[in-house]
């Protein structure tokens, strides 16, 4: 609930994200008492694999992020042969993969900061406003009013 941006990273197993990663994402609620915990958050996606480079896991994470109504940034990272990319102390070696991860995180920060003042406007949905019981519509700011204005005028003319 408190995050503005998230990084999802999964190993690629058999050409897909792991079951543990999928279960974790499935555990995130879409709605808690009218609050949508993931809606409007910036998201970066990354994957690691033991073999050749692939983008299956990041593509799935990107799709799931959109489904969770997150703003998934354009950049992503995929680290191939991850077992070769770390030293004995467990730190990632300097490489183009390391540089790419830094690029992704910097872009996530930029998008998060740029989205911050606009999240409410960008994640506002007609169906959610309509669902809110008894909430009056502000025709000056409700974009759906443009689409339904002619219907109201027609109904007024018939009466």
CATH architect. name of the largest domain? 3-Layer(aba) Sandwich
Oligomer: single chain
* Structure summary, number of beta strands: 4
How many separate helices? 6
CATH class of the largest domain: Alpha Beta
The biggest beta sheet reads: 4 strands, mixed
Strand content: 15-25%
Taking pLDDT < 50 over at least 5 consecutive residues as the criterion, the unreliable ranges are: none
Broad structural category: alpha/beta
Number of domains: 2
User: What string, H for helix and E for strand, traces the elements in order?
Assistant: EEHEHEHHHH
CATH superfamily heading of the largest domain:
Flavodoxin domain
**Cα Rg:** 21 Å
Query: What is the end-to-end distance?
Result: 48 Å
The level of helicity is 40-55%
What's the rounded overall pLDDT mean? 84
Strand sequence of the main sheet, in spatial order? Answer: 2-1-3-4
Principal-axis shape equals elongated
**CATH T-level topology of the largest domain:** Rossmann fold
What does this entry look like structurally?
The chain has 159 residues and is α/β, with parallel strands linked by helices. It is 42% helix and 17% strand. It contains six helices and four strands, in the order ββαβαβαααα. Strands 2-1-3-4 form a four-stranded mixed sheet, sandwiched between helices. The longest helix has 20 residues, at 96-115. β3, α2 and β4 (71-79) form a beta-alpha-beta unit. It folds into two domains: 5-123, Rossmann fold (3-Layer(aba) Sandwich), CATH 3.40.50.360; 126-159, no CATH class.
């Amino acid at each position: 609930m408190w995050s503005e941006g998230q990084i999802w990273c999964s190993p690629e197993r058999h050409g897909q994200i792991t079951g543990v990663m999928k279960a974790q994402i499935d555990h995130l609620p879409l709605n808690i008492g009218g609050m949508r915990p993931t809606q409007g958050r910036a998201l970066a996606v990354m994957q690691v694999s033991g073999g050749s480079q692939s983008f299956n896991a990041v593509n799935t994470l990107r799709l799931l992020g959109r489904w969770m109504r997150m703003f998934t940034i354009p950049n992503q990272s995929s680290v191939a042969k991850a077992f070769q990319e770390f030293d004995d102390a467990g730190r990632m070696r300097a490489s183009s993969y390391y540089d790419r991860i830094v690029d992704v995180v910097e872009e996530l920060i930029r998008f998060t900061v740029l989205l911050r003042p606009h999240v409410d406007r960008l994640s506002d949905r007609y169906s959610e406003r309509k669902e809110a019981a008894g909430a009056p519509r502000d025709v000056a700011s409700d974009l759906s009013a443009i689409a339904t204005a002619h219907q109201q005028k027609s109904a007024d003319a018939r009466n």
